[in-house]
Specification:
- The protein has 517 residues and is α+β, with helices and mostly antiparallel strands.
- The protein folds into three domains: 5-83 and 205-282 and 490-516, D-Maltodextrin-Binding Protein, domain 2; 87-184, Dipeptide-binding Protein, Domain 1 (Dipeptide-binding Protein, domain 1); 284-487, Dipeptide-binding Protein, Domain 3 (Dipeptide-binding Protein, domain 3, Roll).
- Helices cover 28% and strands 21% of the residues.
- An eight-stranded mixed beta sheet has the order 1-13-20-12-2-11-10-9, sandwiched between helices. A six-stranded mixed beta sheet has the order 15-19-14-18-16-17. A four-stranded antiparallel beta sheet has the order 5-6-8-7, covered by helices on one side.
- Strand 7 and strand 8 form a beta hairpin.
- The longest helix has 18 residues, at 461-478.
- The protein is globular.
């Protein structure tokens, strides 16, 4: 998860969504207890034809067809099927999409990008290098509220076009695997000259926009000329709802076939009827829950104070009470399930050693403020439990509970001693790059910075893997990420829904291969 607000779920329409949920609940019959969530459930292959209706967390009036203009799951899901990226993530690796090949130049100071042949926009015009240059400039323009983070690694102002399908892109710092950054951030391609001022959009994706209304939903029609072949469903109807229970009820009452990111309480209670199943994205696609400690101010500028927090947390208690058992204890490292992730056992709870470290570091001298909001279900509850647990070692901790819209206000984050945080299994290069770009979330450690630079800049795969081990060893030893749990990501689907694919984050899966059996 980026601290960039565009990458955070918007909360407009929250009250209306909650009210709607209550009305729907009254109309439903009593739920029956659900079995454990199913992994890879439903038919493996959807049939051709029909309409798939799916509902995701929406962003209200802030939703946009601009793939870089808004940040709700509903926006991401729609954007993934309307617009293609140069590369996509498959099992943590960069896979070719509109980009066919990357050749890294000497010293990783540039790369040659070759594009896939025969790609067409929805209007039938060819996809070329000029579209790529425009897309890079469009996403990274300083006029945008939140320019693409790709511009921190690549110098888009100095791109050279060799021919209609070949470009040379200079880097701002050595990047040994540029395709991974293009896949994970990601770099959606838009048509040369696109402005997104109306209710239509032209992409190269598996579906094209027919209708769109911000905060309510969109209707998409299959694009038969897609370079990867025809999608299964004739149409996708994507509904936008903020309240999680309202999304569940949309499936139960027949308004939708699939709901992403449902509450843990629904997993426990089940839903009425035999036509549904609660699904899990699996252990490799869990969401890390925890906090990032601010190393720019006391007391967490001292590694002893940071370790005291990690030694005190009752991790299993948090998994059982906040996640209702849907998950596993975390080991303080982010990106579990991603390539290069270091699987280590969490620190054992040791209150006596933690008290000693608190005294040595002087961390008991002042009040500690941990900023939180219900951005993810469980942020506030886990932060309040953390404050209670840390009293055992003599720390005075206050949970600063704010509303989601103000959660990542920069000055407030900088003033807090820590902030609640969560992240999926995204590539380590992207996650640590994002944290490092914000001083209150970065680890101030020269050895860590050197290891990270080697990890992203080295062209040799073996040396890159060794550097990522070094990065995580340092983070495990004296880092500022406190990951108490790895939460399952649950969804609700009719049993006939098939072909749901996780590319980046399971909370907004790829529906270009999905449909009904």
């Amino acid at each position: 998860m980026s601290i960039n607000r565009r990458a955070l779920f918007r909360t407009a329409g929250l009250v209306a969504g909650a009210a709607g949920a209550g009305a729907l609940l009254d109309a439903c019959s009593a739920a029956t207890p659900s079995p454990d969530p199913a992994r890879d459930a439903g038919p493996a292959v959807p049939r051709q034809g029909g309409t798939l209706r799916a509902v995701f967390t929406g962003g209200g009036a802030s939703e946009s067809l601009d793939p870089f203009g808004s940040g709700s799951p509903a926006d991401f899901v729609r954007g993934d099927v309307v617009f293609d990226s140069l590369f996509t993530l498959i099992d943590g690796e960069a896979a070719s999409a509109l980009g066919d090949e990357v050749e890294v130049g000497p010293g990783a100071a540039s790369f040659m990008l070759k594009l896939r042949e025969g790609v067409k926009w929805h209007d039938g015009s060819p996809f070329t290098a000029h579209d790529v240059v425009y897309s890079f400039q469009f996403m990274s323009s300083p006029k945008r509220a939140f320019p693409s983070q790709l511009s921190g690694y690549f110098d888009f102002g100095k791109i050279q076009i060799r021919d209609p399908l070949t470009l040379v892109v200079p880097t701002r710092r050595p990047v040994g695997d540029p395709a991974l950054f293009l896949a994970a951030l990601p770099g959606k391609m838009v048509k040369n000259g696109a402005t997104f001022t109306g209710a239509t959009a032209i992409g190269t994706g598996a579906y094209q926009v027919v209708e769109f209304e911000a905060g309510r939903g969109s209707r998409l029609e299959r694009f038969d000329g897609h370079w990867a072949g025809k999608a299964p469903a004739d149409e996708l109807v994507l509904l936008s709802l903020v309240d999680s229970q309202a999304r569940v009820n949309a499936v139960v009452t027949g308004q939708a076939d699939y709901a992403g990111d449902i509450p843990f309480t629904t997993g426990k209670a089940g839903v009425p009827g035999n036509d549904f199943e609660v699904r899990t994205a699996g252990a490799k696609n869990r969401t890390a829950y925890g906090w990032v400690l601010n190393t720019t101010i006391k007391p967490f500028d001292d590694p002893r104070a940071r370790k005291a927090v990690r030694l005190t947390i009752a991790r299993q208690q948090l998994v059982d009470s906040v996640l209702l058992g849907y998950g596993a204890p975390g080991n303080d490292l982010l990106c579990a399930g991603a390539k290069y992730f270091m699987p280590r056992a969490p620190l054992a709870r040791d209150v006596g050693q933690a008290r000693k470290l608190v005294k040595e570091s002087g961390a008991d001298a002042a009040e500690i403020v941990i900023r939180t909001a219900e951005w993810e279900v469980g942020y506030n509850a886990s932060t309040r439990l953390l404050a209670e647990q840390l009293k055992e070692i003599g720390l005075k901790v206050r949970a600063d509970v704010v509303s989601p819209p103000e959660f990542f206000e920069p000055d407030a984050v900088a003033a807090a001693n820590g902030v609640a945080f969560s992240s999926g299994a995204i590539p380590l290069a992207v996650m640590y790059g994002r944290l490092g770009a914000s001083p209150p979330l970065a680890l101030k450690d020269n050895e860590f910075a050197a290891a990270f630079g080697t990890a992203i800049g080295n062209e040799d795969k073996a040396e890159r893997a060794k550097a990522w081990d070094d990065v995580q060893e340092i983070m495990f030893d004296r880092g500022n990420t406190v990951v108490w749990g790895q939460a399952d990501v649950l969804s609700l689907a009719r049993k006939t829904v098939a072909g749901i694919v996780v590319r980046d984050q399971p909370k907004y899966p790829y529906l270009g291969k999905a449909g009904l059996a």
